[in-house]
């Protein structure tokens, strides 16, 4: 089968053996894949958790049809239209744990379906389960113009947030954040953003910040979070190391929580999928929660898809179809 593999000469399409499901695995005939920032790093040889390096089939997010079940797989049958996340997505066939997929809504095509699994699971976990957002509270999404960021703002609105703040350093993308739930859009590259957030919250700061940037905004986040507020660290696009004001963190008694899928057990991931599905699925089916598709590429042009992601000018998801 065709697959996009990181080899000795970099990322390229190669012919590899079709996998077979074991245990609770499901074999998926892939129809479409969504690109993610971590994929871009792995095309350059970086490691993402336990994935990456020579011989790695790339990709983390897909939609398709169930082709075969492992002996312990439950909850789906051959022919079901599904979407999910996991390793080795950029291929004609991929394997997924039976608890790491969603049934794709009947009113959604494969291109649309492949944009959602990572954004929904990551941000339902960060905003609702870990972040503890309650109706009537305020939330800020750092890095809001990414696919997961756009979804985070929508989930916050769906859960009843009274104020949603989104950040982007790109003026064009920042201007569009209100389409996806932002009441206030700020430039996190301008230190004045902290004062804008404080003004919007009567000087208190937001109840919750979901941070995909980190780096230089880490201590700024502390100033923009209310006393006894929460910060959930999801991503580190702005850097993994930076100055951190420990005294301000303690003085404001902020609950600072780090999350990642990379160190979670399959049982934890199954629970994340279960909670997101039970809480959000009516909103997914009714299109209250959805992501824009920036551009669709054929699988043979997957290299061009990554060039577009690397240019960092897109808003929404880049999709590759098989």
TrEMBL record:
Residues 7-320 form the Enoyl reductase (ER) domain. Keywords: NADP. The keyword NADP applies. One of its GO terms (molecular function) is oxidoreductase activity. It comes from the Bacteria. SMART domains: PKS_ER. InterPro entries: ADH-like_C (IPR013149), ADH-like_N (IPR013154), ER (IPR020843), GroES-like_sf (IPR011032), NAD(P)-bd_dom_sf (IPR036291), Zinc-ADH_QOR/CCCR (IPR051603). PANTHER family: QUINONE OXIDOREDUCTASE (PTHR44154:SF1). This is NADPH2:quinone reductase.
């Amino acid at each position: 089968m065709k697959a996009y593999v990181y080899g000795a000469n970099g990322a390229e399409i190669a012919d590899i053996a079709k996998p077979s499901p074991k245990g609770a695995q499901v074999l998926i005939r892939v129809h479409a894949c969504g690109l993610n920032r971590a994929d871009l790093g792995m095309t350059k040889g970086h490691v993402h958790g336990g994935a990456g390096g020579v011989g790695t089939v790339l990709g983390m997010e897909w939609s398709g049809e169930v082709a075969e079940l492992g002996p312990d797989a439950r909850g789906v049958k051959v022919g079901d239209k599904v979407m999910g996340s996991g390793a080795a997505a950029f291929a004609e066939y991929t394997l997924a744990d039976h608890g790491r997929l969603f049934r794709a809504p009947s009113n959604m095509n494969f291109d649309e379906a492949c944009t959602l699994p990572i954004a929904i699971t990551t941000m339902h976990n960060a905003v609702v389960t870990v972040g503890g957002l309650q109706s009537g509270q305020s939330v800020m999404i750092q890095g809001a113009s990414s696919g997961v960021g756009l979804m985070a703002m929508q989930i916050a609105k769906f859960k009843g947030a009274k104020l949603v703040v989104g950040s982007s350093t790109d003026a064009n993308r920042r201007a569009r954040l209100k389409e996806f739930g932002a009441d206030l859009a700020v430039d996190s590259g301008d230190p004045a953003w902290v004062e804008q957030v404080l003004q919007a919250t009567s000087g208190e700061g937001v109840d919750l910040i979901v941070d995909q940037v980190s780096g230089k905004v880490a201590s700024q986040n502390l100033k923009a979070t209310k006393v006894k507020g929460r910060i959930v660290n999801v991503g580190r696009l702005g850097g993994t190391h930076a100055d951190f004001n420990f005294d301000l963190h303690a003085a404001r008694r902020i609950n600072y929580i780090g999350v990642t899928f990379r160190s979670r057990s399959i049982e934890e991931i199954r629970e994340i999928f279960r909670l997101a599905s039970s809480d959000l699925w009516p909103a997914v089916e009714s299109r209250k929660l959805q992501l824009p598709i920036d551009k669709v590429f054929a699988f043979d042009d997957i290299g061009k898809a990554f060039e577009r992601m690397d240019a960092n000018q897109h808003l929404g998801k880049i999709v590759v179809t098989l």
